[in-house]
Amino acid sequence: MAELRPGDSTTIRDLVWKAVDEVQITDIHTHIYPHTFDGLLLWGIDDLLTYHYLIAETMRYLEMGYEHFWALPKRAQAELVWRTLFIERSPVSEACRGVLTTLEKLGLDVSKRDLEAYRRFFAEQKVDEYVDKVFELSRVKTVVMTNDPFDDAELGYWSKSRQQDERFRAALRLDALLNSWHTAVPKLQEWGYNVGFDINSQTVSEVRRFLVEWLNQINAVYMAVSLPPSFAFPEGSTRGQLISECVLPTARETCKPFAMMIGVKKLTNPALRLAGDSVGKANIDVVEYLCANYPDVKFLVTMLSRENQHELCVVARKFRNLHVFGCWWFLNNPSLVDEITRMRLELLGLSMTPQHSDARVLDQLIYKWAHSRRIIADVLTDKYVDLAATGWLPTEQEIRRDVAALFGENFWRFVG
Ligand code: FIX
Ligand code: ZN
Predict the structure, then answer these.
(1) Residue 258 pLDDT greater than 60, yes or no
(2) Whose CA is nearest to atom 2 of ligand 1?
(3) CA pair distance 146, 299, nearest whole angstrom
(4) Is the pTM of the predicted complex or chain greater than 0.90?
(5) Which of 19, 196, 237, 345 is the most exposed place for a label (fewest CB within 10 A)?
(6) What is the CA radius of gyration of the chain?
């Protein structure tokens, strides 16, 4: 066990980097699935290149109509992204860099810029072995999926069998239920839940039955929903009633957290489809109100606007039933991960979960965590060096303890 001496920043840096590099991560929000999920798992270079972040960046350079792009086969879309963002100009964006980090960590030579060679590598992979390889390379132990019963593609899987791969845990996603009730009602009725469009007592009890049954069916770790910047609560809207009458009582009854991902403006540019969502500053009063008035409900919260981050940290200082997590989506860039992680450590200490990957393509686990580990290790090193300057020398064991907490143990403790 290395002992530190005052001002010993090199050793501290080495100890932190080693601990962060070696920690087995729980990735608490992703969009990836086991390969047994009937084709829902995305992986390999063409899926990496057609990530919606890269499509948005590519379309900025093209005259081509959006529908023309979407009509292209995936390989052609990938080639267009590759040519536009990697060959005709340097791939300096975080999403471009991520593709190259992934290829490099897989042992491929990115200096060759040989898309066909990379395609041949992935073509040689057996998917189940490749899933193992990605988990090994990224040193991710567990991922939490996004599971939406209202997604026909996924529903079929759950009715056939229970999820077997313990590395993949489920989260019950409620966007359809809470944000498009009119489409949810006919499906709930089809599944045998005696609901109507009015949120009356029968509908409330049937929606609660749906929530409890699905939480059990998929063995969900938490319930989640993405919410617009305009999200208000309490509110007489359908969403407001469903949250207060159904979701919050179920969260209390089952002790499952309610994860709110706040600040997404859906389809600001509908022609970009999944890549068309934008961001807006939300009202932090809603988070404060929910935490204050539902002290026996656990809230996982991430907010999409940079401008919401400081006030979210302050609210978390007031309410221990609020667990702040991740540098979500447009915040998952080195400059902002650094800023937000620094702010959180300074305001919340170690009582938060600094990052999740939001990976949509399996291989992204490799780059998203390689990039985040580096930034979080840097910020943590600074904080421990500040400590050491006072004469408080963290031991290697203490550093490893703290790092394990940040990269998963805090989450599991909060989830209970
Ligand atoms: O709502 C969400 O889970 C968002 O993370 C996604 O909708 C978004 O497309 C994404 O993948 C961002 O990273
Ligand atoms: Zn997501």
Answers:
(1) yes
(2) 226
(3) 17
(4) yes
(5) 196
(6) 22
